[in-house]
Design goal:
Blueprint (H helix, E strand, L loop, with lengths): L22 H12 L2 H11 L4 H28 L6 H10 L1 H31 L11 H19 L2 H28 L3 H6 L10 H16 L4 H4 L8 H25 L5 H5 L5 H10 L1 H35 L17 H17 L6 H29 L12 H33 L3 H10 L7 H23 L5
Length: 486
Protein backbone atom coordinates (compact mmCIF):
# COMPACT_ATOMS: atom_id res chain seq x y z
CA UNK A 1 0.00 0.00 0.00
CA UNK A 2 1.46 3.33 -0.98
CA UNK A 3 1.48 6.26 1.40
CA UNK A 4 -0.43 9.46 0.72
CA UNK A 5 2.12 11.96 1.97
CA UNK A 6 2.10 15.73 2.31
CA UNK A 7 5.40 15.98 4.12
CA UNK A 8 7.79 15.40 1.32
CA UNK A 9 9.76 12.59 -0.25
CA UNK A 10 10.26 9.33 1.57
CA UNK A 11 13.62 8.70 0.16
CA UNK A 12 12.44 5.57 -1.59
CA UNK A 13 11.50 6.82 -5.03
CA UNK A 14 8.04 6.82 -6.67
CA UNK A 15 5.13 5.26 -4.81
CA UNK A 16 1.89 3.73 -6.02
CA UNK A 17 -1.56 5.28 -5.42
CA UNK A 18 -2.74 4.80 -1.84
CA UNK A 19 -5.04 1.83 -1.26
CA UNK A 20 -7.78 2.77 1.21
CA UNK A 21 -9.10 0.53 3.99
CA UNK A 22 -12.82 -0.32 4.18
CA UNK A 23 -15.00 -0.52 7.30
CA UNK A 24 -14.67 -4.31 7.32
CA UNK A 25 -10.87 -4.16 7.12
CA UNK A 26 -10.64 -1.47 9.82
CA UNK A 27 -12.90 -3.53 12.09
CA UNK A 28 -10.71 -6.57 11.44
CA UNK A 29 -7.69 -4.47 12.48
CA UNK A 30 -9.42 -3.64 15.79
CA UNK A 31 -10.53 -7.23 16.47
CA UNK A 32 -7.21 -8.62 15.26
CA UNK A 33 -5.34 -6.29 17.60
CA UNK A 34 -7.50 -7.00 20.65
CA UNK A 35 -7.90 -10.78 20.33
CA UNK A 36 -4.40 -12.03 20.93
CA UNK A 37 -2.52 -13.54 23.86
CA UNK A 38 -4.64 -11.95 26.57
CA UNK A 39 -7.88 -13.85 26.07
CA UNK A 40 -6.14 -17.23 26.41
CA UNK A 41 -4.66 -16.22 29.77
CA UNK A 42 -7.85 -14.78 31.29
CA UNK A 43 -9.04 -17.77 33.41
CA UNK A 44 -5.81 -18.00 35.42
CA UNK A 45 -5.28 -14.22 35.63
CA UNK A 46 -8.75 -13.69 37.08
CA UNK A 47 -8.72 -16.76 39.33
CA UNK A 48 -5.46 -15.55 40.92
CA UNK A 49 -7.20 -12.33 41.95
CA UNK A 50 -10.96 -12.77 42.31
CA UNK A 51 -14.04 -14.96 42.26
CA UNK A 52 -17.20 -14.69 40.18
CA UNK A 53 -18.57 -11.63 41.99
CA UNK A 54 -15.32 -9.69 41.60
CA UNK A 55 -15.02 -10.78 37.97
CA UNK A 56 -18.51 -9.51 37.17
CA UNK A 57 -17.73 -6.15 38.79
CA UNK A 58 -14.31 -5.96 37.11
CA UNK A 59 -15.75 -6.61 33.66
CA UNK A 60 -18.50 -4.08 34.29
CA UNK A 61 -15.97 -1.41 35.26
CA UNK A 62 -13.57 -2.31 32.47
CA UNK A 63 -16.34 -2.61 29.90
CA UNK A 64 -17.82 0.77 30.79
CA UNK A 65 -14.40 2.42 30.99
CA UNK A 66 -13.17 1.02 27.71
CA UNK A 67 -16.52 1.80 26.05
CA UNK A 68 -15.99 5.41 27.09
CA UNK A 69 -12.51 5.28 25.56
CA UNK A 70 -13.97 3.78 22.39
CA UNK A 71 -16.49 6.65 22.28
CA UNK A 72 -13.59 9.08 22.81
CA UNK A 73 -11.74 7.71 19.78
CA UNK A 74 -14.96 7.76 17.76
CA UNK A 75 -15.60 11.40 18.71
CA UNK A 76 -12.04 12.57 18.09
CA UNK A 77 -11.95 10.87 14.68
CA UNK A 78 -14.95 13.02 13.67
CA UNK A 79 -14.16 16.24 15.55
CA UNK A 80 -10.47 16.34 14.55
CA UNK A 81 -10.34 14.64 11.12
CA UNK A 82 -7.02 16.36 10.41
CA UNK A 83 -5.21 14.24 13.02
CA UNK A 84 -3.70 10.88 12.03
CA UNK A 85 -2.20 8.10 14.20
CA UNK A 86 -4.85 8.82 16.85
CA UNK A 87 -3.31 8.27 20.25
CA UNK A 88 -0.10 10.17 19.57
CA UNK A 89 -1.68 12.97 17.52
CA UNK A 90 -4.36 13.71 20.11
CA UNK A 91 -1.85 14.08 22.93
CA UNK A 92 0.29 16.46 20.86
CA UNK A 93 -2.64 18.61 19.73
CA UNK A 94 -4.00 18.85 23.25
CA UNK A 95 -0.94 19.22 25.43
CA UNK A 96 2.10 20.13 23.37
CA UNK A 97 4.93 18.49 21.47
CA UNK A 98 6.82 16.94 24.38
CA UNK A 99 3.83 15.18 25.93
CA UNK A 100 2.80 14.20 22.40
CA UNK A 101 6.26 12.70 21.95
CA UNK A 102 5.95 10.79 25.25
CA UNK A 103 2.54 9.54 24.18
CA UNK A 104 3.92 8.31 20.86
CA UNK A 105 6.90 6.66 22.50
CA UNK A 106 4.85 5.13 25.33
CA UNK A 107 2.27 3.70 22.95
CA UNK A 108 5.01 2.35 20.72
CA UNK A 109 6.94 0.85 23.66
CA UNK A 110 3.73 -0.70 24.96
CA UNK A 111 3.19 -2.39 21.61
CA UNK A 112 6.77 -3.68 21.56
CA UNK A 113 6.48 -5.17 25.07
CA UNK A 114 3.08 -6.60 24.17
CA UNK A 115 4.64 -8.33 21.18
CA UNK A 116 6.98 -10.12 23.57
CA UNK A 117 4.03 -11.61 25.47
CA UNK A 118 2.91 -13.28 22.26
CA UNK A 119 6.16 -15.16 21.79
CA UNK A 120 6.42 -16.07 25.48
CA UNK A 121 2.91 -17.53 25.36
CA UNK A 122 3.57 -19.44 22.14
CA UNK A 123 6.69 -21.02 23.65
CA UNK A 124 4.86 -21.78 26.90
CA UNK A 125 2.10 -23.48 24.90
CA UNK A 126 4.55 -25.65 22.99
CA UNK A 127 6.42 -26.19 26.28
CA UNK A 128 3.59 -28.46 27.41
CA UNK A 129 4.98 -31.10 25.02
CA UNK A 130 8.56 -29.79 24.75
CA UNK A 131 9.83 -29.23 28.33
CA UNK A 132 13.00 -27.52 27.08
CA UNK A 133 10.86 -24.45 26.32
CA UNK A 134 9.61 -24.26 29.92
CA UNK A 135 7.18 -21.38 30.46
CA UNK A 136 8.56 -19.53 27.46
CA UNK A 137 11.54 -18.04 29.30
CA UNK A 138 14.31 -20.63 28.77
CA UNK A 139 17.35 -20.02 26.57
CA UNK A 140 15.95 -22.21 23.78
CA UNK A 141 12.58 -20.44 23.97
CA UNK A 142 14.25 -17.04 23.67
CA UNK A 143 16.30 -18.17 20.66
CA UNK A 144 13.22 -19.52 18.86
CA UNK A 145 11.19 -16.44 19.77
CA UNK A 146 13.95 -14.22 18.38
CA UNK A 147 13.83 -16.14 15.11
CA UNK A 148 10.08 -15.49 15.01
CA UNK A 149 10.55 -11.77 15.67
CA UNK A 150 12.91 -11.30 12.75
CA UNK A 151 10.95 -13.63 10.48
CA UNK A 152 7.89 -11.41 10.84
CA UNK A 153 10.05 -8.35 10.25
CA UNK A 154 10.94 -9.76 6.84
CA UNK A 155 7.27 -10.59 6.12
CA UNK A 156 5.93 -7.14 6.98
CA UNK A 157 8.76 -5.48 5.10
CA UNK A 158 7.24 -6.91 1.90
CA UNK A 159 4.28 -4.53 2.16
CA UNK A 160 1.49 -3.26 4.39
CA UNK A 161 -1.22 -4.27 1.91
CA UNK A 162 -0.12 -7.90 2.00
CA UNK A 163 0.12 -7.88 5.80
CA UNK A 164 -3.39 -6.44 6.33
CA UNK A 165 -4.81 -9.01 3.90
CA UNK A 166 -3.26 -11.80 6.00
CA UNK A 167 -4.69 -10.16 9.13
CA UNK A 168 -8.27 -10.33 7.78
CA UNK A 169 -7.94 -14.08 7.23
CA UNK A 170 -6.30 -14.73 10.61
CA UNK A 171 -8.92 -12.64 12.46
CA UNK A 172 -11.70 -14.96 11.32
CA UNK A 173 -9.63 -18.11 11.94
CA UNK A 174 -8.70 -17.25 15.52
CA UNK A 175 -12.23 -16.40 16.68
CA UNK A 176 -13.48 -19.93 15.98
CA UNK A 177 -11.63 -21.80 18.80
CA UNK A 178 -12.53 -19.08 21.34
CA UNK A 179 -16.23 -19.27 20.51
CA UNK A 180 -16.09 -23.09 20.54
CA UNK A 181 -14.44 -22.93 23.99
CA UNK A 182 -17.32 -20.86 25.38
CA UNK A 183 -19.95 -23.19 23.89
CA UNK A 184 -18.27 -26.37 25.16
CA UNK A 185 -17.70 -24.85 28.61
CA UNK A 186 -21.40 -24.00 28.83
CA UNK A 187 -22.31 -27.62 28.04
CA UNK A 188 -19.94 -28.86 30.79
CA UNK A 189 -20.89 -26.10 33.23
CA UNK A 190 -21.34 -27.24 36.86
CA UNK A 191 -23.55 -24.87 38.90
CA UNK A 192 -22.18 -26.16 42.24
CA UNK A 193 -18.58 -25.35 41.24
CA UNK A 194 -19.67 -21.93 40.00
CA UNK A 195 -21.46 -21.24 43.30
CA UNK A 196 -18.37 -22.23 45.33
CA UNK A 197 -16.29 -19.80 43.26
CA UNK A 198 -18.74 -16.92 43.58
CA UNK A 199 -17.31 -15.12 46.59
CA UNK A 200 -13.64 -15.74 45.87
CA UNK A 201 -10.99 -17.50 47.94
CA UNK A 202 -9.39 -16.47 51.23
CA UNK A 203 -6.21 -15.32 49.46
CA UNK A 204 -8.15 -12.91 47.24
CA UNK A 205 -8.70 -10.27 49.95
CA UNK A 206 -11.43 -7.62 49.97
CA UNK A 207 -13.74 -7.23 47.00
CA UNK A 208 -12.16 -3.86 46.15
CA UNK A 209 -8.68 -5.39 46.10
CA UNK A 210 -9.95 -8.28 44.00
CA UNK A 211 -11.32 -5.90 41.38
CA UNK A 212 -8.22 -3.72 41.49
CA UNK A 213 -6.02 -6.79 40.97
CA UNK A 214 -7.71 -7.60 37.67
CA UNK A 215 -7.51 -4.13 36.13
CA UNK A 216 -4.17 -4.46 34.32
CA UNK A 217 -5.31 -7.76 32.83
CA UNK A 218 -8.44 -6.11 31.43
CA UNK A 219 -6.38 -3.23 30.02
CA UNK A 220 -4.11 -5.67 28.22
CA UNK A 221 -6.91 -7.57 26.52
CA UNK A 222 -8.59 -4.34 25.43
CA UNK A 223 -5.43 -2.83 23.97
CA UNK A 224 -6.16 -2.43 20.28
CA UNK A 225 -9.50 -0.68 20.72
CA UNK A 226 -7.75 2.32 19.16
CA UNK A 227 -6.47 0.25 16.21
CA UNK A 228 -8.71 1.89 13.59
CA UNK A 229 -7.75 5.32 14.90
CA UNK A 230 -4.05 4.57 14.51
CA UNK A 231 -4.62 3.66 10.86
CA UNK A 232 -7.02 6.55 10.20
CA UNK A 233 -4.89 7.97 7.39
CA UNK A 234 -5.62 4.84 5.34
CA UNK A 235 -9.44 4.86 5.85
CA UNK A 236 -11.63 5.05 2.75
CA UNK A 237 -14.20 7.08 4.73
CA UNK A 238 -13.30 8.98 7.89
CA UNK A 239 -16.52 8.06 9.71
CA UNK A 240 -15.61 4.38 9.31
CA UNK A 241 -12.86 4.86 11.92
CA UNK A 242 -15.35 5.44 14.72
CA UNK A 243 -17.73 2.74 13.50
CA UNK A 244 -14.95 0.16 13.31
CA UNK A 245 -13.82 1.06 16.84
CA UNK A 246 -17.27 0.45 18.33
CA UNK A 247 -18.00 -2.69 16.32
CA UNK A 248 -14.65 -4.21 17.25
CA UNK A 249 -14.97 -3.31 20.94
CA UNK A 250 -18.49 -4.67 21.42
CA UNK A 251 -17.62 -7.92 19.64
CA UNK A 252 -14.58 -8.75 21.72
CA UNK A 253 -16.02 -7.52 25.02
CA UNK A 254 -18.72 -10.18 24.83
CA UNK A 255 -16.10 -12.83 24.06
CA UNK A 256 -13.66 -11.82 26.82
CA UNK A 257 -16.28 -11.66 29.58
CA UNK A 258 -17.76 -15.00 28.50
CA UNK A 259 -14.39 -16.80 28.54
CA UNK A 260 -13.75 -15.61 32.09
CA UNK A 261 -17.14 -16.33 33.63
CA UNK A 262 -17.77 -19.80 32.15
CA UNK A 263 -14.36 -20.98 33.40
CA UNK A 264 -15.58 -20.59 37.01
CA UNK A 265 -18.12 -23.32 36.29
CA UNK A 266 -15.54 -25.91 35.26
CA UNK A 267 -12.85 -25.98 37.99
CA UNK A 268 -12.42 -24.62 41.54
CA UNK A 269 -10.90 -21.16 41.59
CA UNK A 270 -7.70 -22.35 43.32
CA UNK A 271 -7.09 -24.97 40.61
CA UNK A 272 -7.61 -22.47 37.79
CA UNK A 273 -5.11 -20.14 39.48
CA UNK A 274 -2.45 -22.88 39.31
CA UNK A 275 -2.90 -23.80 35.63
CA UNK A 276 0.03 -23.16 33.29
CA UNK A 277 -0.50 -20.63 30.55
CA UNK A 278 -2.46 -20.69 28.33
CA UNK A 279 -4.92 -21.43 31.13
CA UNK A 280 -7.85 -21.59 28.71
CA UNK A 281 -6.36 -24.84 27.40
CA UNK A 282 -6.25 -26.33 30.93
CA UNK A 283 -9.87 -25.37 31.59
CA UNK A 284 -11.10 -27.00 28.37
CA UNK A 285 -8.98 -30.09 29.04
CA UNK A 286 -10.70 -30.46 32.41
CA UNK A 287 -14.05 -30.15 30.65
CA UNK A 288 -13.69 -32.40 27.59
CA UNK A 289 -10.32 -34.16 27.82
CA UNK A 290 -6.86 -33.82 26.24
CA UNK A 291 -8.14 -32.90 22.79
CA UNK A 292 -9.59 -29.71 24.28
CA UNK A 293 -6.12 -28.55 25.32
CA UNK A 294 -4.72 -29.32 21.87
CA UNK A 295 -7.61 -27.52 20.18
CA UNK A 296 -7.12 -24.34 22.24
CA UNK A 297 -3.33 -24.46 21.84
CA UNK A 298 -3.57 -24.55 18.04
CA UNK A 299 -6.09 -21.72 18.10
CA UNK A 300 -3.81 -19.73 20.38
CA UNK A 301 -0.85 -19.95 18.01
CA UNK A 302 -2.98 -18.74 15.08
CA UNK A 303 -4.50 -15.97 17.20
CA UNK A 304 -1.23 -14.74 18.65
CA UNK A 305 0.57 -14.64 15.32
CA UNK A 306 -2.28 -12.61 13.85
CA UNK A 307 -2.25 -10.17 16.77
CA UNK A 308 1.53 -9.87 16.53
CA UNK A 309 1.19 -8.90 12.88
CA UNK A 310 -1.41 -6.21 13.61
CA UNK A 311 0.56 -4.76 16.54
CA UNK A 312 3.83 -4.64 14.61
CA UNK A 313 2.05 -2.63 11.91
CA UNK A 314 0.51 -0.22 14.41
CA UNK A 315 3.72 0.27 16.39
CA UNK A 316 5.73 1.14 13.29
CA UNK A 317 2.94 3.42 12.06
CA UNK A 318 3.05 5.53 15.24
CA UNK A 319 6.82 6.10 14.98
CA UNK A 320 6.52 6.82 11.26
CA UNK A 321 3.78 9.46 11.61
CA UNK A 322 5.54 11.07 14.58
CA UNK A 323 8.70 11.37 12.47
CA UNK A 324 6.78 12.89 9.55
CA UNK A 325 5.40 15.45 12.01
CA UNK A 326 8.99 16.18 13.11
CA UNK A 327 8.50 14.84 16.64
CA UNK A 328 10.84 11.91 16.07
CA UNK A 329 14.20 11.84 14.24
CA UNK A 330 13.89 12.02 10.45
CA UNK A 331 15.27 8.55 9.78
CA UNK A 332 12.09 7.06 11.29
CA UNK A 333 10.01 8.87 8.66
CA UNK A 334 11.44 6.95 5.73
CA UNK A 335 9.39 4.30 3.97
CA UNK A 336 9.78 1.91 1.06
CA UNK A 337 7.90 2.09 -2.22
CA UNK A 338 5.40 -0.40 -0.75
CA UNK A 339 4.54 2.03 2.08
CA UNK A 340 6.49 0.08 4.70
CA UNK A 341 8.21 2.31 7.31
CA UNK A 342 11.28 0.07 7.39
CA UNK A 343 13.42 2.04 9.93
CA UNK A 344 10.45 2.29 12.32
CA UNK A 345 9.70 -1.40 11.85
CA UNK A 346 13.36 -2.27 12.47
CA UNK A 347 13.42 -0.22 15.69
CA UNK A 348 10.18 -1.90 16.81
CA UNK A 349 11.63 -5.36 16.30
CA UNK A 350 14.87 -4.39 18.03
CA UNK A 351 13.12 -3.17 21.21
CA UNK A 352 10.99 -6.32 21.31
CA UNK A 353 14.22 -8.31 21.09
CA UNK A 354 15.70 -6.45 24.07
CA UNK A 355 12.56 -6.92 26.20
CA UNK A 356 12.46 -10.61 25.24
CA UNK A 357 15.92 -11.08 26.74
CA UNK A 358 14.94 -9.12 29.88
CA UNK A 359 11.99 -11.45 30.53
CA UNK A 360 14.48 -14.25 31.20
CA UNK A 361 15.28 -12.47 34.49
CA UNK A 362 11.65 -12.24 35.62
CA UNK A 363 9.95 -14.73 37.95
CA UNK A 364 6.90 -14.81 35.67
CA UNK A 365 7.88 -13.62 32.19
CA UNK A 366 4.36 -13.59 30.76
CA UNK A 367 2.69 -11.71 33.63
CA UNK A 368 5.53 -9.19 33.85
CA UNK A 369 5.38 -8.38 30.13
CA UNK A 370 1.57 -8.26 30.19
CA UNK A 371 1.38 -5.83 33.12
CA UNK A 372 4.17 -3.63 31.76
CA UNK A 373 2.39 -3.44 28.41
CA UNK A 374 -0.75 -2.22 30.15
CA UNK A 375 1.10 0.31 32.32
CA UNK A 376 2.95 1.87 29.37
CA UNK A 377 -0.31 2.38 27.48
CA UNK A 378 -2.02 4.30 30.28
CA UNK A 379 -0.36 7.70 29.76
CA UNK A 380 -1.27 7.82 26.03
CA UNK A 381 -4.86 6.78 26.83
CA UNK A 382 -5.13 9.33 29.66
CA UNK A 383 -3.92 12.16 27.41
CA UNK A 384 -6.32 11.19 24.61
CA UNK A 385 -9.27 11.15 27.02
CA UNK A 386 -8.23 14.48 28.54
CA UNK A 387 -8.00 15.96 25.02
CA UNK A 388 -11.61 14.94 24.40
CA UNK A 389 -12.59 16.83 27.57
CA UNK A 390 -10.62 19.85 26.40
CA UNK A 391 -12.42 19.90 23.04
CA UNK A 392 -15.81 19.56 24.75
CA UNK A 393 -15.03 22.52 27.01
CA UNK A 394 -13.35 24.64 24.30
CA UNK A 395 -14.99 23.60 20.98
CA UNK A 396 -13.70 26.55 18.96
CA UNK A 397 -10.10 25.40 18.81
CA UNK A 398 -8.32 25.30 15.48
CA UNK A 399 -9.15 22.21 13.43
CA UNK A 400 -12.23 21.22 15.46
CA UNK A 401 -15.24 20.25 13.32
CA UNK A 402 -18.86 20.41 14.49
CA UNK A 403 -20.41 21.40 17.82
CA UNK A 404 -19.80 20.00 21.28
CA UNK A 405 -22.52 18.20 23.22
CA UNK A 406 -23.03 17.41 26.88
CA UNK A 407 -22.67 13.73 25.99
CA UNK A 408 -19.14 14.31 24.67
CA UNK A 409 -18.13 16.03 27.91
CA UNK A 410 -19.56 13.24 30.10
CA UNK A 411 -17.88 10.56 27.99
CA UNK A 412 -14.53 12.38 28.09
CA UNK A 413 -14.67 12.88 31.87
CA UNK A 414 -15.60 9.23 32.52
CA UNK A 415 -12.82 8.00 30.23
CA UNK A 416 -10.31 10.28 32.00
CA UNK A 417 -11.37 9.08 35.45
CA UNK A 418 -11.18 5.46 34.32
CA UNK A 419 -7.62 5.75 33.00
CA UNK A 420 -6.57 7.66 36.12
CA UNK A 421 -7.96 4.77 38.23
CA UNK A 422 -5.98 2.33 36.09
CA UNK A 423 -2.76 4.18 36.94
CA UNK A 424 -3.62 3.75 40.61
CA UNK A 425 -4.43 0.08 40.05
CA UNK A 426 -1.10 -0.47 38.26
CA UNK A 427 0.74 0.32 41.46
CA UNK A 428 4.09 1.98 42.12
CA UNK A 429 6.16 -0.88 40.67
CA UNK A 430 4.97 -0.55 37.10
CA UNK A 431 4.83 3.25 37.24
CA UNK A 432 8.54 3.32 38.15
CA UNK A 433 9.49 0.70 35.54
CA UNK A 434 7.57 2.77 32.98
CA UNK A 435 9.66 5.83 33.91
CA UNK A 436 12.83 3.78 33.35
CA UNK A 437 11.65 3.18 29.79
CA UNK A 438 10.25 6.68 29.17
CA UNK A 439 13.20 8.76 30.38
CA UNK A 440 15.88 7.56 27.91
CA UNK A 441 13.43 8.23 25.05
CA UNK A 442 14.12 11.94 25.51
CA UNK A 443 17.33 11.44 23.48
CA UNK A 444 15.13 10.86 20.42
CA UNK A 445 13.24 14.09 21.15
CA UNK A 446 16.49 16.00 21.51
CA UNK A 447 17.79 14.58 18.23
CA UNK A 448 14.62 15.66 16.44
CA UNK A 449 14.89 19.20 17.85
CA UNK A 450 18.54 19.47 16.84
CA UNK A 451 17.70 18.38 13.29
CA UNK A 452 15.31 21.34 13.15
CA UNK A 453 17.76 23.76 14.82
CA UNK A 454 15.21 24.46 17.54
CA UNK A 455 15.47 25.12 21.25
CA UNK A 456 15.68 21.77 23.03
CA UNK A 457 13.15 22.40 25.82
CA UNK A 458 10.71 25.09 26.87
CA UNK A 459 10.47 25.68 30.64
CA UNK A 460 7.36 23.48 30.82
CA UNK A 461 9.05 20.71 28.81
CA UNK A 462 12.17 20.91 30.99
CA UNK A 463 10.00 20.33 34.07
CA UNK A 464 8.34 17.28 32.49
CA UNK A 465 11.77 15.94 31.51
CA UNK A 466 13.06 16.42 35.07
CA UNK A 467 10.09 14.51 36.52
CA UNK A 468 10.65 11.60 34.12
CA UNK A 469 14.36 11.44 34.91
CA UNK A 470 13.77 11.52 38.68
CA UNK A 471 11.16 8.77 38.29
CA UNK A 472 13.62 6.67 36.29
CA UNK A 473 16.39 7.14 38.88
CA UNK A 474 14.02 6.15 41.71
CA UNK A 475 12.96 3.11 39.69
CA UNK A 476 16.54 1.99 39.08
CA UNK A 477 17.42 2.42 42.77
CA UNK A 478 14.26 0.51 43.77
CA UNK A 479 15.26 -2.39 41.54
CA UNK A 480 18.87 -2.33 42.74
CA UNK A 481 18.02 -2.48 46.46
CA UNK A 482 15.13 -4.91 46.03
CA UNK A 483 12.21 -2.58 46.83
CA UNK A 484 10.58 -3.79 43.61
CA UNK A 485 11.25 -6.90 41.52
CA UNK A 486 10.65 -7.75 37.89
Amino acid sequence: MARADTHGDTGAGPTAPAAKLTLLTLTAMVVGSMVGAGVFSLPRRFAQETGVAGALIAWSVAGLGMLMLAFVFQTLAVRRPDLDAGVYAYAKAGFGEYLGFFSAFGYWASACVGNVTYWVLIMSTIGAIAPALGDGDTALAIILSSAGLWGFFLLIRRGVKEATAINRIVTVAKLVPIIVFVILALFCFEPSVFADNFGGADYAGSLFNQVRGTMLATVFVFLGVEGASVYSRHAKRREDVGRATLLGFLSVFAIFASVTIVSYGILPMAEIAELRQPSMAGVLEAAVGTWGSVFVSVGLIVSVLGAYLAWSLMAAEVLFVAAKDEDMPRFLGRSSGDDVPVPALLMTTALSQVVLVVTAFSDDAFSFALDLTSALSLIPFLLAAAFAVKIALRPRQEGVVGRSTRRELVVGVLATLYTAFLLFAAGLKFVLVSFIIYAPATFLFVKARREQNRRLFSPKEALICAVSVVGAVVGIVALAVGWIEL
